[in-house]
Write a structure and sequence with these properties.
Length: 948
């Protein structure tokens, strides 16, 4: 039948729905017509005049209104721009249409603040082959020009969708798909662009609303108008469409989409929010969505296009009866097979049997092209107007009755695709009936029962942490890798500042997990979405960067799949993090809930039946997929998809409470993990040493063009040194000795010398006529004037010293420019007035140096610094009670304590010893001791390896 949509160049009357009062004329369209390749769909009020028998001709039906004047008025109305302001929360959004993208089926521009999202909807002229899914594709793109900048990459043109753009595509697709009417196979494409971004109003919820409005205005047949909204929670107050600044303090990030009467999709993340609070947020969001949908419906009545309801093609009811008669009894037995693969093979074999039987009795057409038009009469013109030849059965077309030729009776033919679609529907019906009537699912469980759980840690000896989590026929292998900042994931966003993620989870779903052969390539949209859900679920239990300064990567590879693999990634990821020694706040688990909504159809009382821990078949045949992650006290992440027209708050409340009981059971089973998580850093994990210096000293560590920090890395063998503007220095290495060497160099670069300090075994770096320059610490030199070299007169310094000699010096002055003045003479005993020869002077120097090491001077203890031959500080004091390996400076310049200028250190280190037979591993003593106080001494993370 004719799709009641306007053709190119032909205006449509303003009423949004198809009316039978319009007059139609049938005309032959040439091959150059844009609709010449389509098969005509005839309206119910079509009157067919004399037609010539020309099978190669294409037909096109054009709708004409009552008068040309009304047609011109409709055209003017069609091209007229429309706009409406819709209240959302404490402000309005502006919806505009009719002035951009006028050749698309619908195009809208939605504005919130100065953020603008432009969305279009287009439909293919020719229907695709029938399928079990609606041919809808969604593409969302954030133009960097929207924020007045370009991409930071080499290619300045926007390319492949980034992960967060893919996630927004999924947010748009998931609530729209359930509203699409079955039997519509015209490929549909929704394109959405962010044209302007003000940095305050996020575009994701705006994009969901814009797509829902565009679909409502287009010719696409859908059941309800869809809108989306975000809800935040700040200071125990719910905020509708919060700004980015408000979201920084929000305990909840909920994105909700629905219609004026039901909820279609929710997704979000929260900080262990109780179920009651989440339901309150959903209720507020539903009220806002209802108001938006009401305003959009008024706009649709003004400028919406007629829906293509006549293009819907459903399998005939007779086919359902035939399939049930052939496969009904055997289908009941097949659905009782507990294992997924044997059940799938049995269903496939039964499907082939049904096809074979229907083909043998002549009900299935073997012509592949027949399936697209078996229910559309083939209009053949004849010399006799009264004789119409069709190959189909009798079809009631209202004013026109087309009957088959009586002399050639033929059975009703079905396409092979229709048989497969009907077989799938019948299988779903029988599965739902088994669950409602018998109270048993395919694997024998009752609606509340959780599948058997088994988990083990430490599978991969060289990985930093690993866990294998198995729940029924769903299995996830989670692997944790620890690293420094350079392992962080960089994200190029609209804000302009590069974002670095210190924790990310990557989900992989290989075809082998379901026993199939498939293509391996870039991650699919489903993989990106499931990975982000598991990532955000675990994010709330991670320690802060100050307590655990590692970048954390979790890889979840699905090795088996039969439902809820993303929630298996949450459970496996939690165990793997514990096995890697990450000090988590608590353990969390995830579970997927399902639902059979219409139970009255199968003898139920009409109450929705909620299923815990659903399998793949229950997801495909059921009405809901509701994933919830958290612990016994609250929720960290959730995601709900609906396959029906929506659900209500009471149904959602029941599902949440049942999910809470399921999480408790799963957490109890995870606690039985064998072998359990090691809960300490792996010997193969890198070491990270954290120290604090004065922010103004950071440039001394970096050096000109980064030369100094690179030289430290090369000299000490550390993997990396990360410097931050606030003075935080993070040293990453594989062994403690290299950390100690680099730490000593950094300390010497950033130390604050004090008048009176004594430096031992210092190297002479250069000699000038007026003295020598002595390196008291790596990179720090001072001048020892020729008059301060010895107690006697000396004509030239090179007469007694040469470059490379080591001397003991004392700091006697720091001038206004920060230059150091040293004295060797101040450390010498009173020398005789006669001028000693060179040999005697050298001997005396050796004796004096030895004496100074053996006995401290009388009076107040003085600080002594040893400079080893490798140029590294081995700090030591003459205080007998101080056993620190660093200099404990407590002298002061003026009223400021030098102690305040010293680096504050934190050490993250691992245990190399392993725990056997429940024996607690010994804590290895850190060589790095805080130079500030005993409270800052290094401790072990989580009782085993901790940042002090």
């Amino acid at each position: 039948m004719l799709a009641s949509r306007s053709f190119h160049g032909v205006p449509h009357p303003p009423p949004p729905h198809f009316t039978r009062s319009n007059r139609y004329t049938l005309s032959l369209s040439s091959s150059s017509s844009p609709r010449s390749k389509t098969t005509p769909l005839l309206p119910s009020s079509l009157s067919i005049g004399p037609l010539k028998r020309r099978r190669s001709s294409q037909f096109c039906v054009h709708a004409q209104s009552e008068s040309s004047e009304s047609t011109s008025n409709a055209a003017a109305q069609y091209t007229q721009p429309f706009s409406v302001k819709i209240p959302v929360g404490d402000r309005h959004i502006l919806v505009e249409t009719g002035d951009m993208g006028r050749q698309a089926s619908a195009a809208v521009r939605v504005t919130d603040g100065e953020t603008i999202v432009y969305t279009t909807v287009c439909l293919d002229d020719v229907p695709s082959e029938p399928s079990d899914f609606f041919p809808l594709s969604v593409h969302y793109q954030e133009r960097f020009s929207a924020a007045g900048r370009t991409s930071g990459g080499f290619f300045k043109r926007e390319g492949r969708a980034r992960d967060h753009e893919v996630l927004i595509c999924r947010l748009i697709d998931r609530p729209l798909r359930p509203t699409m009417l079955k039997g519509f196979y015209h490929e549909t494409q929704i394109l959405s662009w962010v044209l302007s971004y003000d940095g305050l109003h996020p575009p994701d919820s705006l994009a969901v609303t814009a797509a829902g409005i565009a679909v409502a205005l287009s010719e696409l047949p859908n059941s309800k108008t869809v809108a989306g909204v975000r809800i935040g929670l700040v200071n125990d107050k719910f905020i509708v469409n919060p700004t980015t600044k408000e979201m920084e303090d929000s305990e909840l990030d909920l994105l909700l989409a629905g219609t004026d009467s039901a909820i279609l999709m929710i997704e979000g993340y929260c900080n262990f929010l109780p179920e009651e609070k989440l339901l309150q947020a959903v209720e507020i969001g539903q009220d806002v969505v209802r108001g938006i949908c009401t305003e959009v419906e008024s706009l649709v009545k003004r400028c919406g296009k007629p829906k293509m309801l006549d293009a819907i093609k459903l399998p005939p009811p007779e086919l359902y009866r035939h399939v049930e008669e052939i496969a009904g009894d055997e289908l009941v037995k097949v659905l009782q097979i507990k294992k997924k693969i044997p059940r799938r093979k049995a269903l496939s074999s039964l499907e082939e049997k049904v096809l074979s039987i229907l083909t043998e009795i002549g009900y299935v057409s073997k012509d592949e092209a027949f399936g697209a038009s078996e229910r559309i009469p083939d209009l053949l013109d004849d010399e006799d107007e009264d004789e119409e030849v069709v190959v189909d059965g009798e079809v009631d077309e209202g004013d026109v009755h087309i009957k088959p030729v009586t002399r050639k009776p033929t059975p009703l033919l079905f396409s092979e695709v229709d048989v497969k679609l009907v077989f799938k529907d019948v299988t779903s019906k029988f599965l739902r009936k088994r669950i409602v009537e018998g109270g048993k699912r395919s694997d024998g469980r009752n609606p509340f029962e959780i599948r058997l759980i088994n988990s083990q840690c430490g599978l991969l000896p060289r990985a930093h942490g690993s866990a294998l989590f198995t729940r029924g026929e769903t299995q996830a292998l989670a692997v944790v890798t620890l690293g420094d900042k350079y392992m962080a994931q960089r994200i190029d966003n609209l804000e302009g500042a590069d974002e670095y993620k210190r924790f990310y989870l990557q989900y992989t779903f290989p075809p082998s997990s379901v026993g199939e052969v498939g293509r391996m390539g870039a991650p699919s949209r489903r993989e990106i979405g499931h990975g982000r859900l598991a990532e955000r679920s675990l994010e709330r239990i991670l320690p802060s960067d100050d307590n655990f300064p590692y970048t954390i990567r979790v890889e979840s590879t699905i090795t088996e799949s039969n439902g809820s693999s993303s929630m298996a990634s949450v459970c496996g990821g939690c165990l793997a993090l514990q096995d890697a020694g990450v000090p988590l706040r608590c353990s969390i688990a995830g579970i997927a809930m399902g639902m059979v909504l219409d139970t009255e159809e199968f003898g139920g009382d009409g109450t929705p039946l909620i299923l815990s821990d659903i399998t793949g078949s229950e997801d495909a045949s059921g009405d809901m997929d509701f994933k919830v992650a958290g612990n016994e006290d609250g929720i960290t992440a959730f995601q709900m998809d609906i396959k029906v027209g929506g659900i209500t708050l009471p149904i959602m409340k029941q599902a949440l409470l049942q999910a809470k009981n399921g999480r408790k059971h799963i957490l109890g089973e995870m606690a039985k993990c064998s072998p359990p998580p090691s809960k300490r850093l792996s010997v193969y994990a890198p070491l990270i040493h954290v120290m604090k210096v004065k922010p103004e000293k950071v440039n001394l560590i970096i050096g000109s063009g980064g030369k100094k920090v690179k030289s430290i890395i090369e000299e000490t063998g550390v993997e990396g040194i990360d410097t931050q503007d606030d003075g935080t220095i993070k040293i990453t290495a594989k062994d403690l000795s290299s950390i100690e060497r680099s730490k000593s160099i950094i300390k010497s670069l950033t130390m604050v010398p004090t008048v009176g300090d004594i430096y031992r075994n210092c190297e002479i770096k250069s000699i000038t006529p007026y003295g020598v320059f002595v390196e008291i610490a790596p990179g720090r030199e001072g001048l020892c004037h020729i008059s301060e070299l010895t107690g006697q007169w000396m004509e030239k310094a090179e007469d007694a010293f040469k470059i490379g000699d080591h001397v003991d010096v004392k700091l006697i002055e720091i001038n206004a420019k920060g230059q150091l003045r040293l004295s060797r003479r101040a450390l010498l005993p009173d020398a005789p007035t006669e001028k000693p020869n060179l040999k005697q002077q050298t001997s005396d120097h050796t004796k004096e140096s030895a004496a100074s090491h053996k006995a401290p001077e009388s009076g107040t203890p003085k600080k002594v610094v040893n400079i080893e031959k490798d140029g590294l500080i081995g700090g030591k004091t003459e205080h007998p009670e101080d056993r620190s390996s660093t200099v404990n400076r407590r002298s002061s310049i003026g009223s400021q304590s030098v102690e305040d200028n010293l680096p504050v250190e934190k050490v993250v280190k691992r245990l190399t010893s392993s725990a056997k037979d429940g024996e607690r591993p010994k804590k290895s003593r850190s060589k790095a001791v805080s130079s500030i106080s005993d409270e800052n001494k290094s401790n072990l993370v989580n009782g085993e390896a901790k940042v002090g």
